[in-house]
Amino acid sequence: MAHTAAWHKANRAIRAACKERHIDEDQRKLIMEDVTGKTSSRDCTAQELESVLDSINGQTQQRHDFKPATKAYVRLIWALWNDLDSRGGVKFDDTRQGLVFFVNKFRSKDKQLADPRQLDWLTYKEATPIIEAIKNMIERLKKGKP
After folding, report:
1. In a domain, 52, yes or no
2. Is residue 10 domain-resident?
3. In which domain, by residue range, is 128 found?
4. Is residue 63 assigned to a domain?
5. Among 84, 89, 121, which residue's Cα sits nearest to residue 104?
6. Do 87 and 26 share a structural domain?
7. Using CA atoms, how far apart are residues 108 and 90, in angstroms rounded to an integer?
8. 139 — phi, psi (to 5°)?
9. Pseudo-torsion of CA 4, 62, 71, 120, nearest 10°?
10. Mean pLDDT of 11-25
11. What band does 134 get if pLDDT is binned at 50, 70 and 90?
12. Which of 27-31, 84-88, 123-127 has the highest mean pLDDT?
């Protein structure tokens, strides 16, 4: 099947967006399958690729089943974040994306996370200030300070 210029442009944009957000090939295929029902970009139309790109860029957020984190300090981050949320300290409709946004404040621009599943990529050294910041936020809420 010969692809159009629009198809090639959308395919390049998907690859660039994945690289920018550190989304690997397997994750890209999962997103593509969620959006189009197809795992290969070759089988997609230009319009389907645009939908995949929108999903990757966060314009149409897909829900995924999440496996528990494999690292204890990442599970601690989730537990503290959920505690903060239960106390009313999280101001996001989607608390998972809220945590990603919060974690990205502690990471350099070239290491931004796009998906909550990527929290497992954190090292202990990167996770420690995040854990302390969430603990401090919980303590402020306990004392009645916003």
Report:
1. yes
2. yes
3. 72-142
4. no
5. 121
6. no
7. 22
8. -60, -40
9. 30
10. 86
11. very high
12. 123-127
